[in-house]
Amino acid sequence: MKIRTIGALMRKEVLQVFRDPPTLVQVLAIPLIQLVVLANAATFDTGATRLLVRDDDRTTASAAMVAELVGSGEFTVVGTAIAPERIEAVLRRREAAAVLHIPDGFEAALARGERSAVQLQINAEEGAVAGLIQQAAQAIVERQGGMPSMLEVRQQGWFNPTRRYKDWMVPGILVSLTTIIGLLLTAQSITREKELGTLEQLNVTPVTKGEFITAKLLPFWMIAMGIFTVGLTVAKLVFAIPTVGAVPIVFLAAMVYLTVALGIGLLISTVTQTQQQAMFVAFFVLLIFLLMSGLFTPLEAMPDWAQAVAHANPVMHFVGLMRAVLVRGAGLAEVGPTIVGLGIAGAAVLGLAVVQTRKTLE
Amino acid sequence: MSAFRGLVRKETLHLLRDRQTLAILFLLPVVSVLLFGFAVRTDVRAIPIVVVAPAPDAATRALVARIAESEQFRLRGTRHSEETLDDAFQAGTVRQAIVLPADTEQRMARGERLVVGLVTDASDPNTGRVMEGYAGALLRRWHAERSGQAPAGGVTLLTRMRFNPTLESVNLFVPGLIALILTIVAAMMTAISITREKERGTMELLLVSPLRPSAVVLGKVAPYVVLGMANMVTVLLAARVVFGVPMRGHPLVLLGASLLYVVASLGLGILISTRAETERTAIMAALAGLLLPTLMLSGFIFPLDAMPRPLWVISHLIPARWFLTIVRGVMVKGAGLVDLWRELAILAAMSVALLGVGIRRLAIRLP
After folding, report:
1. Which of A139, A192, A300 faces B280 most closely, judged by CB atoms?
2. Mutation test of the interface with chain B: which of A91, A99, A125, A286, choosing the one with the most B Cβ atoms within 10 A?
3. Residue burial B10-30, b: 16+ Cβ < 10 Å; e: rest
4. Per-residue pLDDT tens digits for A282-324
5. Predicted local confidence at residue B180, as pLDDT
6. Residue B141 is part of which domain span?
7. Touching B: A residues 255-284, CB under 8 Å
8. B224 and B360: one domain?
9. Residues of chain B scoring pLDDT < 70
10. What's the CA gap between A286 and B288, in Å, rounded?
11. pTM for this entry
């Protein structure tokens, strides 16, 4: 590998990017705007649940229970009368998120020391939300009447006591934005030259495959690192994300991780023929990486085989590492193996990209 | 009209000739729906948990046994003190811990108040709340049984999860995935195919033909309408056959909405291509610009009701939001035209507007 050759090739890549201002603006603006906007969208906290109450009992006890629900701040009553046959339509049109039915004789049963039941129908269209509504209602309703329990559970939420979604999501969103931009740029870089015919010109020069891939990787790697750095600064200044652990570890990991992500982009670019193909493949690779990364849905929820498969997903490792270091304060001892693993993966992917590069006409 | 037919024929041949792309276009959506259907779930299970008991006794062992047989938890051992708990939580190997007092058994036997500590990794607030709910319920059952406190009186909450009783994640993901795939296929493919002709100069050739500019654009996007619809049908069939995803409403409503949505996405693609001079810019705008917003602002993953007000307003501008409401309504809730006319009308207005503006802009920019 000749440093001078790589330098010259890199200079060409950098010039090409900077000569094309719209791309440059996009590459910087898209991730930053999206980071600032989307960070606010990433929450399951729906606020007070819109509840419709059908109280057939109309007693002090039933009124007290409804008051408890409202008083907790987790529910708000949007209506009181409803015919049983209309419940489904109300839920279907999202006029209420849940319907509570208190049957006649509710208070009487409680007074006799018997167990009484109330029914809650929840629109389970959005599973995660429905589960949270059920838990909130259960905790309040089952406190009503009966003997006070002798069990007291003292809950402590570690690492994120105020339960801010942003602490958890912003690092993940930043990773996905950096990955999307970096992977797309590299995925189309070689196919673009194939389509424009300029790859042929490079093929007749003495540039080796290794030099070619290195020169394709480095400029985009620097752009991606730039986006990551600016993004992390914005995350800290605008969203005040926690930085419990050492930030240099995160940067070290980002440097290694981006060789993997961009290497995958280059690999896609070497095996596809047109930019259209490359982009479609890149889209699905990104979709799989993002949706199976634990970024949006808990990793533990995946079946065991899928968790095993997810270990091949670099996004999963890097998102996990960012959260471990920034939110939980993990150090090199905990995340070191992950960084080494990413390094090995990066070397393998780039090696594969070099092997796949063709200098001859097919 | 025959010139228009000729153009559609040319575009179709372009698409069909490239077998590799075509195979990718058909296979990847189906593969991804199968993969996500099996793998991506929102329910929390197999929570790694430890029990901290300074002096293990019969009551403690009963609790451990309960946890061991539960599917929601995966027991990561019992400890005598909280000492090394920090490290395990930091590394993420343990996400929850139940801390019992030394005299658990005696207190229960004497009917005294028992205070149990429940430590939860709340870094992900959503999962944290679910984990607390599970552990709390398990502790209450264990306490009621061990202390022989028959729960006299009290209120039971009977819950009915309407429309999706088993909270199947796949029912929620398939509609979102369809929206995402249609967006990308339609918007990105159109944007790429038009900018490619611009970049290579062949667009000029098409525009000096006797066809009007709008006809050129329509001819170019027509094959992608067919392709997008074909994708949507294959994805839906795969989801139905493999996962038994429900189809409670009328399929025609769904097909109509999909057509509107594909047209809206095509319009978006054309609009992008009017601004972009090179394929690179078009790709970045279409993919990088649309992927995450479609994923996060449409209600696919994060509930619309949870968004702060300004974002909630912005989400109204995202076609995928309306499409998703319709798809979920038809498939999961059995909604019909009566329930969905508003969403359908908005989607129709959006597709007309996007396509109209796109075509006008393109015609102006390439005189």
Report:
1. A192
2. A125
3. ebeeebeebeebeebbeebbb
4. 988 998 898 888 888 777 778 888 888 888 999 999 999 998 8
5. 84
6. 47-162
7. 273-277, 279-284
8. yes
9. 1, 42, 148-155, 163-167, 363-367
10. 11
11. 0.82
∠B141-B145-B147 over CA atoms, to 5°? Answer: 115
The tens digit of pLDDT for each residue in A152-166 reads 777 777 777 777 788
Q: How confident is the model at residue A267 (pLDDT cuts 50, 70, 90)?
A: very high
Domain annotation covers residue B8? no
Contact A120 B153 (CB under 8 A): no
- Determine the residue type at B365: R
| CATH number (domain holding residue B58) | 3.40.1710.10
Inform me whether the C-beta atom of residue B45 falls under 8 Å from chain A C-beta atoms: yes
pLDDT for the residue B346: 92
Residues A148, A146: Cα–Cα separation, whole Å: 7
pLDDT at B367: 44
* Together in a domain, B222 and B306: yes
Chosen domain end from B102, B134, B162? B162
The total number of structural domains in chain B stands at: 2
Mark whether B186 and B81 lie in a shared domain: no
The ipTM value here is 0.78
Same domain, B73 and B177: no
Preferred mutation among B63, B108, B305 to probe A, highest tally of A CBs within 10 A: B305
Answer whether B225's CB lies under 8 Å from B259's CB: yes
Here the tokens at position A234 are 């914005």
Same domain, B312 and B227: yes
